[in-house]
Design goal:
One of its GO terms (biological process) is intracellular cholesterol transport. It contains four helices and twelve strands. It is α+β, with helices and mostly antiparallel strands. A hairpin with a 4-residue loop joins strand 1 and strand 2. The longest helix has 24 residues.
């Protein structure tokens, strides 16, 4: 088990990586799934043998409230149907922490429940916010869970210029689920999980 990293350089590197993903040209992405709530694209990841996914959709609420529902905190467990538990293991500053969370089984339990330990960082970006994370090799793996790994991932949330009460939410996700899984099952699950994320979030913000 690794010791906890120094948060400041890790946060800076993570932010720079996400900003770089955010500048990747449209031509490099291929549409993976499209619903009324969101569009999901993907491209081969530079970090591992799977895909980097990009998801985007408009959410009807102000930026701060949207990000409060996404980042580690009391809201997330209430509405995210995939997340089954979450606890904050370490807090560095109010915008920077290490959290452990578990996810439900997916695809009729072909994908068994997973556990993740992530470093999470939230910062300002343009007129909005960026909340981002990366997995750490930290803490004992609990029984009955496979430990997954999130390569650099995050959510950009900025107000729509013509409609400041709405936010454009763009996510970059590259999750290595680990364990013995057919890649096609992982790819199906990822696209569906991301579109469901938007529809669940929209419902939560209306409550």
């Amino acid at each position: 088990m690794d010791p906890l990293p120094n948060p400041a350089p890790l946060a800076s590197k993570l932010q720079n990586t996400l900003v770089r993903y955010h500048s990747i040209g449209d031509g490099e992405w291929r549409v993976a799934k499209k619903t009324k709530d969101a569009t999901v694209w993907r491209k081969p990841s530079e970090e591992f043998s799977g895909y980097l996914y990009k998801a985007q959709g408009v959410v009807e609420d102000v930026t701060n409230r949207v990000v409060d529902h996404i980042r580690p905190g009391p809201y997330r467990l209430d509405w995210d149907s995939l997340m089954t538990s979450m606890d904050i293991m370490e807090t560095f500053e109010e915008n920077c922490c290490v959290m452990r969370y578990t996810t439900a089984g997916q695809l009729w339990n072909i994908i068994a429940p997973r556990e993740f330990v992530d470093f999470s960082y939230t910062t300002s970006y343009e007129d909005g916010l960026l909340t981002c994370g990366i997995s750490l090799d930290y803490g004992e793996v609990r029984p009955n869970f496979v430990r997954g790994f999130n390569h650099p991932c995050g959510w950009f949330c900025v107000p729509l210029k013509d409609s400041p009460g709405h936010s454009l939410l763009t996510g970059y996700i590259q999750t290595e689920l680990r364990g013995m899984l057919p890649q096609s099952a992982v790819d199906t699950a990822m696209s569906s999980t991301l579109t469901n994320f938007y529809s669940d979030l929209r419902k939560a913000l209306k409550m």
